[in-house]
Design a protein that fits this description.
By secondary structure, the chain is mainly beta. It has one helix and five strands; from the N terminus they run βββββα. The longest helix has 5 residues. The protein binds FE2/S2 (inorganic) cluster (FES).
């Protein structure tokens, strides 16, 4: 019998909020625009959350220049 602790199963895709910045997506996913165009991505992408990127839907770092603030945390769901 092994004493190795069980690791929780990793989800196929993870979306993480970055404080004062974009949404980081890791795993297996597709980014598709409203016309159905599929953007070429790797296993990690950063999507603009501030609305000011010149390369939407992706983040281009403009959030730093404009002082975008978003540090809220989700409330626990019942
Ligand atoms: S979140 Fe980075 S440019 Fe909008």
């Amino acid at each position: 019998m092994s004493n190795t602790p069980q690791q929780p199963e990793q989800p196929a895709t993870t979306i993480k909020t970055v404080d004062n910045g974009p949404l980081q997506i890791k795993g297996q996913f597709q980014v598709v625009d409203h016309d159905g165009t599929v953007y070429e991505t790797r296993r990690t992408a950063f999507l603009c959350r501030c609305g000011h990127s010149a390369t939407k839907p992706f983040c281009d770092g403009t959030h730093n220049k404009i002082g975008f603030e978003a540090t809220g945390r989700a409330e626990e769901q019942e």
